[in-house]
Specification:
By secondary structure, the protein is an alpha/beta fold. The protein contains five helices and five strands, in the order αββαββαααβ. The protein is 33% helix and 13% strand. The strands form two sheets. A three-stranded mixed beta sheet has the order 2-1-3, covered by helices on one side. Strands 4-5 form a two-stranded parallel sheet.
Length: 169
Amino acid sequence: MGPRAEHRTFLLALAGCVALTIAAGWGRWRPLPLEVVADPGVVAVQVVGAVARPGGYVLPWGSRVDDLLAAAGGATPDAALELVTGAALLTDGASVAVPRATDPDGDARIDVNAASVRLLETLPGVGPVTAVRIVAARPFHSVDDLARVPGIGPVRLEALRDRVTVGGG
């Protein structure tokens, strides 16, 4: 047997060893199946803001925001329901904020702890990105807490001060 034949034999033996090693260890290398422990027949959701009974609710899978509002006793008279998508499907762990059209004193100020992204975008100098950042930074305990939101500096905070209120924080 010449050097070429020995080389081929060596490579075939090496390939066989690699194949056997992979086959023997395959069970340890493949991902394990994920076990789902949540009950797929229900969704646990929360509602805050302008509803009769804010809080957590467990509803049947496939429920919509309107079903959640009904379970919470309906919207209060000052609710801005035009800013809530009632037909939206609920997902497990969702939180729905029903904004008020006015604060308890009758002002047309927006509650930054309950307002939707769409309602926050109506504020001066607040676009989609800043509105999402406001929602992510909740809860606020005072209007001055808005200063911790990226994109809201002292000038913008002063422009918002008379247009917003902080409730439910």
